[in-house]
Recover the amino acids of this structure.
């Protein structure tokens, strides 16, 4: 009898314990500003940081990849990132924005996360890279920890696809098709 009551109580509490993003289709992502570090740019071959704000995401079709500062989170949707790279979408109308939550990294690896982000920006200079030292984006968007979230936005900045976790091969095809449809 006590087991049944415990199970019923657990079932009632489960929805409040689950984590779910607060990103809605056909709406912009919730507004957020990253001041610590921010968007990575290069000046004279040296990485620099500038304040980043989600309000500046309009004007291009975008794939936002919000990831924990962990290699496992980066690997989670590496297949999608490879597929996007192979498509060679026009830079004038498309951009990938990767937001790295340095606050969600394994203790003691913050410096590695930062240098890895800087190297990625150098390798994929046409992409936007944001290093979020304090996890402002993950908090503002209620993202799962230790994970990867993929968001596709149209040129108006409205979300047309969102998923937390690893995308299936069909979902990767869906994202590529959505990008082409919006260009």
């Amino acid at each position: 009898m006590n087991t049944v009551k415990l199970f019923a109580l657990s079932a009632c509490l489960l929805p409040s314990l689950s984590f779910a993003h607060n990103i809605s289709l056909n709406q912009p992502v919730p507004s957020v500003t990253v001041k610590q570090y921010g968007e990575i740019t290069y000046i004279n071959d040296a990485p620099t940081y500038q304040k980043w704000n989600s309000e500046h995401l309009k004007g291009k079709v975008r794939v936002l990849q919000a990831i924990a500062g962990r290699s496992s989170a980066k690997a989670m949707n590496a297949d999608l990132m490879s597929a996007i790279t192979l498509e060679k979408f026009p830079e004038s109308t498309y951009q990938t924005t990767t937001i790295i939550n340095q606050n969600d990294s394994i203790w003691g690896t913050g410096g590695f996360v930062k240098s890895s982000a800087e190297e990625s920006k150098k390798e994929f200079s046409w992409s936007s890279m944001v290093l979020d030292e304090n996890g402002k984006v993950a908090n503002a968007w209620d993202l799962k920890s230790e994970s990867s979230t993929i968001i596709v936005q149209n040129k108006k900045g409205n979300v047309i696809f969102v998923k937390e976790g690893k995308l299936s091969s069909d979902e990767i095809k869906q994202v590529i098709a959505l990008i082409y449809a919006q260009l």
The mean pLDDT is 90.
